[in-house]
């Protein structure tokens, strides 16, 4: 688990590869001052493709608010990523993620794991 603190809020990231029932409970929750949006589960595999369920909660004073429910359209989990990668390889597009960006992301992930960017440190 990692806790990120920002000027106007926090983010919590939790992952556990061995959590029983965890796959169907994978979710993304964004909480704001005017609404909460929940995507849960992140992927539902159907005969016609992959979808996700979306709930939007807007009533802060109603503990039993069922929220507005909807289901996304079909999407391919890797389709866009692989299309963009093919364009980079073919020289048809420029990768928006620079080497410096990737290096900084790597350092942040190591720091979240309690390991320094040079590999030193202990897990916390």
Number of domains: 2
Reported for the largest beta sheet, the result is:
4 strands, antiparallel
The shape, in one word, is extended
The total count of helices amounts to 2
Rg, please?
A: 19 Å
Low-confidence stretches: none
Mean pLDDT: 87
Structural class: alpha+beta
SSE string:
EEEEEEEEHH
Total beta strands: 8
Helix content: 10-25%
Order the strands across the largest sheet as they lie in space.
3-4-7-8
- The separation of the N and C termini measures 10 Å
Beta-strand proportion: 25-35%
Please tag this protein with its features.
124 residues, 20% helix, 2 domains, alpha+beta, 2 helices, 4-stranded antiparallel β-sheet, two-stranded antiparallel ribbon, extended, 8 strands
């Amino acid at each position: 688990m990692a806790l990120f603190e920002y000027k106007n809020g926090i983010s919590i990231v939790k992952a556990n590869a061995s959590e029983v029932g965890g796959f169907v409970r994978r979710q993304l929750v964004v909480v704001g001052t005017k609404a909460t949006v929940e995507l849960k589960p992140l992927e539902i595999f159907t005969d016609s493709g992959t979808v996700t369920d979306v709930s939007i909660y807007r009533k802060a004073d109603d503990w039993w608010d069922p929220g507005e429910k909807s289901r996304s359209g079909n999407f391919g989990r890797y389709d866009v990523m692989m299309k963009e990668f093919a364009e980079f390889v073919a020289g048809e597009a420029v990768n928006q993620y620079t080497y410096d960006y990737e290096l900084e992301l790597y350092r942040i992930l190591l720091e979240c794991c309690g390991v320094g960017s040079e590999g030193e440190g202990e897990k916390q």
